[in-house]
Amino acid sequence: MHPDRMWRSAEPRKSYDVIVVGAGGHGLATAYYLAKNHGITDVAVLDRGWLAGGNMARNTTIIRSNYLWDESAGIYEHALKLWEGLEEDLGYPLLFSQRGVLNLAHSLQDVRDGVRRVEANRVNGVDAEWLAPEQVKEVCPIVDVSPGVRYPVLGATYQPRAGIAKHDNVAWALARAASDLGVDLIEHCQVTGVEVTDGRATAVTTTRGRITANKIALSAAGHTSVVAKTAGLDLPLQTHPLQALVSELLEPIHPTVVMSNAVHVYVSQAHKGELVMGAGIDAANSYRRRGAFHIIESQMAAALELFPVFARAHVLRTWAGIVDVSPDASPIIGLTPVENLYLNCGWGTGGFKATPGIGWCYAHTIAHDTPHPLTAPFTLTRFTTGALVDEHGAAAVAH
Amino acid sequence: MRHPELGAVDRGRVLRFVFDGREFSGHPGDTLASALLANGVRRVGTSALLGRPRGIFSAGVEEPNAVVQIEEPFPEPMVLATVVELYDGLVARSLSGRGRLADQADPARYDAIYAHCDVLVVGAGRAGVAAALEAERSEARVIIADSGAIGADWPGLGFVGGPESVGGLGLAGGPGSVSVDALVGPETRVLARTSVVGYYDDNYLVAVERRTAHLGLGAPPEVARERVWRIRAKRVVLATGAHERPVAFAGNDLPGVMLAGAAREYLVRYGVVPGRRAVVFTTNDSAYAAALDLVAGGVSIAAIVDSRRAPGDVWANRARAAGIEVLAGYFVTEALGDGGVSSVLVSPRDSVFSSREISADLLLVSGGWNPVVHLFSQSGGTLRYDDSLGALVPGESPQAVEVVGSARGDIDHGGESLWFVPADDYSRHFVDLQRDVTVADVWRATSAGLTSVEHVKRYTTAGTAHDQGKTSGALTAALVAHAIGAEPGDVGNTTFRAPYLPVSFAALAGRDRGALHDPVRITALHQWHVDHGALFENVGQWKRPWYYPRDGEDMDTAVLRECRAARQNVAAMDASTLGKIDVIGPDAAEFLDRLYTNLISSLPVGSIRYGMMCRPDGMVFDDGTAIRLAEDHFLITTTTGNAAAVLDWMEEWLQTEWPDLAVTCTSITEQWATVALVGPGSRAVLRDLAPTLAVDQASFPFMTWRDTEVAGIPARVCRISFSGELAYEINVSSWYGLALWQTLMSRNITPYGTETMHVLRAEKGYPIIGQDTDGTTTPQDLAMTWIISKKKPDFLGKRSFTRQDTARPDRRHLVGLLPQNPTTLLPEGTALLADGQMVGHVTSSYTSPALNRTFALALVAGPHPTLTTLTGTKADVTSPVLYDPDHTRRDGNPEEPHNDTDTVDQVKDASAKRAAAARSTPHDTDTAARAGGLADGVPAGEVVAPAAAYGRFAVEAGSPGPERRSPLGGFSVEFDGLRMNEIPFLTQVNVRSAEALTPPNATVTAGETVTAWLGPDEWLVIGAAGARGVDVSAQRTAIRVTGARARELLAHGCALDLHPSAFPDGRCAQTLLARTQVVLIAESDGFLILVRASFAAYLAAWLVDAAAEF
C-alpha cells in the first residue's frame, strides 16, 4: 500500500522563490498547490520539528463544511469538495470516510441556531439536515436522547458528507506529492526571524542559517504570531492548548461523528476502532503541548452524559495541540502590511478540515499577490473595519 | 500448574471463573493471568492483524498480549489479565485486539477526591517503602501509592523479579524485603491498587484507585468502584521501578515466550509453575536469578542462552552449580511451535547457521531493563540515554521530584544492549506484539525515508496500542537508530503522555454524572412549579418554568391561555433568575455610564432605566435595568444567562482599566425572589396586597420603584414591563418568595413561564439578547439608536460604531414578519430570501393570541417588503412592534375606566411609610424588564431619596406573618462520623472597608458575630444586625458539616488543603465545592459552608451522594 519513498529529505539552499514557514497540513498543501496549480516549484517548506508534527498530528480529524456564515461555508465547502477527490489526486490512501457529522442541540437556543445553520448551509449549497431526537438516535443509536438527562438532546444538525480522514496520511501524501514536484521539505529548521527591508520581507533566519526568498508565507498555527512578531506584525491571536484523547480499540459502536457544544465533547470512532475525542480549549494561554487535567475530567463527564455506554472504555493517551484563536474565531488569511509576507493563521480549533481548501487558496494568494476570492473576507484588516466573520456566535461549535 | 508450596495465594479458598467459555478455578491472591497459567492456559489472545496466537508475556502493567474482555459481572473492554485480581464468578474471554463496550449504562458509582501531602511516594517496592519510611521520620504527611494490592496479604517481596534481586528464591521476605506494614505514621496514607497516571504542573499528580473490582460480585454498590485521587504534593518520590524488555527474534510472539522476571514472579508470588522445561535467553545477569528460582521451583532449565560472550562469573557459576547449561555468546534465533513454544533454535552469535534445537515449552527472555521514567518525563523532566543500560534514565526535572531505586537507573545487571537477533527475514521478529509490528515493518518505514521516531511510530503504529509501547518503545527507537546509522540515544523517544496506565472514562467522570452532571440552579419558588406541573427550560444552569400545562393541554394551548391571562386579566411569572448586581460607591454613576450605551448618571433616585451594554466591538453584550437607590447606589439587572459574565465584565474593567473608580459590585441574584405581576388587573391585586402603597398612575408611574409591604412582606416594587402591559415586579427577600407567590396564586392568578414571556415581549418587538442578537448585532441594528447616548464622552463600544463595517447602512436589522398565511408558523432559524439571495433569518416566531395570527422577528439586511423561505413561504416585512405600538396599555387597560381610588390620605400615609422603609431598607433589588419603547418612559414621579440605604431587611423571626423558607428547609442528615445540617436565616452583610476587619483568609469572632475575609477589601459579616454593607442574608444559606469525617467529605469536591495544619479553625476561603461557589469557614468541629441559595439543593444532594460510603 505504501510506496517506498515518502518524500525527499532536503538540505536548505541559500535562496528560494517561496518559503513556507510550517510543514503542517496547511503548509504542505500550500506548497503542493503552488507547484501543481501555479507551476511554482522553487519552494521550501521549513519546520522547527518533524514534518506535520504539530496540530496536523494532534487533531481529531473531523472534516465538515456546515459553517454558518457565507464566508466560512465558502472556504470549508471548497475544502470538502477537494477532500472528495483528494485520494485520487494524491494517489495515496487517506482513509477519508464520509460518515456524517451530528452537531447536537441541548437548549432551545441551540435548536434555533441549529435550524438557522442548516438553512444557511442549504442556501450555500452545503448538505445539511435538521434531525429530531429520534432521528439522531437513528443515525447514532448510542446517543442518549432521553429527556431525563441534565441537558437533553433536543435535536441536531447533520451533514452527511462530513466525516473523518487519517491525518498523518494526509500530511504524508501532500508531502510526497509536493516533494515529487520539486518542493524542498526541510525538517528541524526553525525560523527564528523574518528579515524586512524597506517594508519588504526578504529572508528568514533559521537554526540552519539564513535563507532568502522572494515571498515568505507563514503557516505556523499557534506560533504564527511569534514568527510574525519578528517581522514587526502584531497579530490579534491568542494561543491556547487544545486537548484530545484516544481510547483503546473497540468493536464498531459509533458510526458517525458527534459534536456537542453545550455538553462539550466531540467524538468519532477511528477506522482501527479507537474512540477519538476532544474538548474545549484550555482557558489559559500557553505554548505547551499539554493541558490541564480537569479539562479531561469534564470532557469524560460530558461524554458519559451523551454516551452512557462509554463508561468502561479507557483513556489510553491524552495530548494537546497549540491553537491560535482570533477575536472572531475565524482565520486570518492573505496579504500583510509587509510586502511579500503572507499570512495564514487563526484557524483555532478548526484548521484540519480546511487543509486542501486553504492550501489551494493560499497558494493562489501567494502566486498572484492578491487574495483568492474565497479567502478575501478573512483579511487582517477586518479587525479594523469591523467586517468580522463571527463564528463565536450562532455557529459556536468551533471544531 | 501450581507449585505445592510456593506463592502467597490463599489455597484454602477456591474461586471459580470462566475464560473463553471454559470453567476454571483459582485462589484469592491470583491474578487472572496467574490463574490461567496455573490451569495450563497458554493462549490468551489472538493478534489483531495477523491472527497469531498470543500468550501471557509479563506479570504486570506492561503486558502487551493478555488484554482480555471482562463479560461478567459487567462488560469491560481491554483489561490486563496480569492486573485483574481473580474473583469468584469472573467471566472473561480472549480478544483479537478490540474490546466490546456494554450496551447499557454502567450501574457502578465512581468518585474523585483531593489529597495534599508533604511527600508522595509512587511505588511501594523496596525503594519506595524505604523512601516513605524516611519521609515519615521527618515529615508529617506521606502518601504512598502502588498499582498492586499492597497490604497485609501482599507477599512483601519488594522488587520481585527486579534485576537487583538475588537469586535462590527470595521467598518469605527474602533479603532486603520491606512492606508497607512498616509504615505507621499518623498522617501516612497507603493507597493500594492505586496507579499514579499523570504528573502535571506544580506537583499535581493524578492517581486512580481501583476499589471494588477485585471484589467481583461482592462489590458493595454504594462504594465507588474507582476513585480518582487529585494529589498536590510538596515533594514527590518516584519509585516506579523498571520494566524488563524483550529481544526481537523470529517467533518471539509465540505463547510460552515470557519475560524472565515475569516467570519468576509467577512462581514466587503466585506459586504458579509457568512451564515444565525452559530456555532462558538473556543479555544480562538478571535472568539468572529467575532461572535459579525456577529451578528451585521445579522447572527444568534446558539452557541459559546468554548473548554475552563473557557472562559474569558469579552468576554463570551459580547457574552451572545448579546444573544449568550456560551457552555464552549464543542467540536464540527462533522460537518454534504450533500455538505455543515447543522448541527453541539457538546458535552461536558468530555462526548463526550452526543452530541447535532445544526442546522447551517456555522461553524466558531478558533484553535488559528500562527504568519506568514515564511519570518523571511527564513532570517536565529531561531524559538521558544510558549506554550501559541501553535505556533512558531520568535527568533533571523543574519540579520537586526525586527518583529512587531502579527507576533512577540503579540497575547493575552487567548486561549488553541487544535489540534484535540478526536474520535474513525480519517479518516474524515482533516489536510491538499488540500491533503486530515487526522489525521488517520498522525498516520498511525507515527505508521509506522516515527517520523520526514519531513518524515511524505513526507509520507502523508501534507503541500506539493499549500498552502505549511499554515493552516496544525502546526497541522501536533502537531499530530506527540502527537503520539510519545513529546511536540509540540520538533518535530520542516519543513523548511519554498521561495516563501512564489506561483509565476508565467513568473514573474520570467521577460523580459528575446524571443529576449531578452539572449544578442545577433553582429559585425559591421552584418546588411550587414542580408541584403544579410546570415543564422546565434549561437556561444556563437554571431550571426555569417553561409553561404550565393544565389537564392534558399541549404547549400551544397552554401558552395561548397564559398569554391571554397576561393581556386580559392578570398573570405572574417567577423572574428570580435574572442577574442582580449591587453597584455602590461615589463613582457608581460614572462607572455605569461607561458600561452602558445610554446615560445612567442622569437617572433620578427612585427611578429605573433600561440599559444596554456592548462589547468593545460595538456588538450587544447584555441588557437589563438600572434602578437608582441613592445618589451613589444602583441595582442593575442582567439577563439570566449572563449574570456571571456581566459581573466578571464589570470587575475586569474596574480592576484592570479603571482602578481609580471608587465603586464596588456585589452579586445579589439570590437575595431576592422576583415575581412579575402582569396584566391590566395587576394594579388591583397590588392595591389589595399592598394597602400602604399608592398604586395610582400619578403616585407610582412607569419606570419607578417603591419600597412597601406586599402581603405583609417587605418588598420593593418596580413598575417595569416586558410585556407591554401594566406590570409590577415585586421583589422580596427570597426567604419570603414562596409566601408571596402562594398569596398571589391563592387569588387565582395565572402562572406563566418563559415561553409566554417570549410571546408577550415579541409582540411588543422587545429583543432577547442571544436570541434576536447573535454577537454580530449592534444596538442600531435593533433599531435602538435612542439607547446610544450622544452626550457621553465615551462608553464601551462607542468607538466601534464608526467603524467602516459597523456603520454600513445595509446591515442586518431587526424587523417584524407576518407570514402571508396567518396560520403558518415560521420555524425559528429559518433562512429568509429576497430575489433568491439569503438576506436574513427568523430569530423568534410565535402564534399570537393578541394578534390572532402567527408572527416573527427577524434579522434582515436591506429593505424588502416581502421575504421568502426555502420552502416558498412568503412573509411580509413589518415593524417589529406589532402590539400596542403606542404603549397605551403600559399604564393599564385604556379601555377600562380608571379605578384609582387611592385617597390623598392614603397616599400620604404610604409616602411616610415608604420613607420609613427606605431608611431601614437594603440597597438591593431586582427587576426583570426592559422595554424598547422606554426612551419616552423617563419617569416624572416623586423622587424617593433613601439617603441612608444601609440596614437590614427582614421580617423578625418569630413575629407573626408570612412564613419564611430557607433554601434547604432545615436540611439535616447524619452519617457515621458526619453530620450535616442547614443553619438557616443567618444574617449576612457584605462589607467593604479600606481598613482590615480581619487578617487575610481568616475569620474573627466577636460574640455571635463572625467576620470572614473575602478579599483584600471585602468581608462577610455573619450574625450581626446593623453592619453597614450589602445585605446578602438570603443570598446564601449555610450548611454546617461536623464530625470526624467532615474534612474527608469535603475533600471529595474542594481542591483546598483542609488539613488543620493548613486550614485551621478560623480559616476561611472563597472556593469551589462540588463546582459551586462557596464561602468555607473552618470551625472547631468541622466546617461552615455558605452556598448561594440557588445552588443549595444541588450542593446538599451532592454532599449526601459523596457521603454514601460513610
From TrEMBL, chain A:
Pfam (any one)? DAO
Query: What Enzyme Commission number(s) does the record list for this chain?
Result: 1.5.3.24
Q: Which GO terms describe its biological process?
A: tetrahydrofolate metabolic process
Keywords assigned by UniProt, alphabetized: Cytoplasm, FAD, Flavoprotein, FMN, Nucleotide-binding, Oxidoreductase
* Entry GO terms, CC: cytoplasm
The Swiss-Prot or TrEMBL record annotates one GO molecular function as: sarcosine oxidase activity
The entry sums up its family as follows: Belongs to the SoxB family.
What is the name of this protein?
Sarcosine oxidase subunit beta
Q: Which source organism? A: Acrocarpospora corrugata
From TrEMBL, chain B:
Recorded GO MF terms: oxidoreductase activity
Q: Which residue intervals define the domain FAD/NAD(P)-binding in the entry?
A: 118-382
Q: Where is this region: Disordered?
A: 877-931
Asked if the keyword Isomerase belongs to this entry, the reply reads no
The UniProt keywords, alphabetically, are: Oxidoreductase
Write out the similarity annotation: Belongs to the GcvT family.
- What protein am I looking at? Sarcosine oxidase subunit alpha
Organism (species): Acrocarpospora corrugata
Gene field = soxA
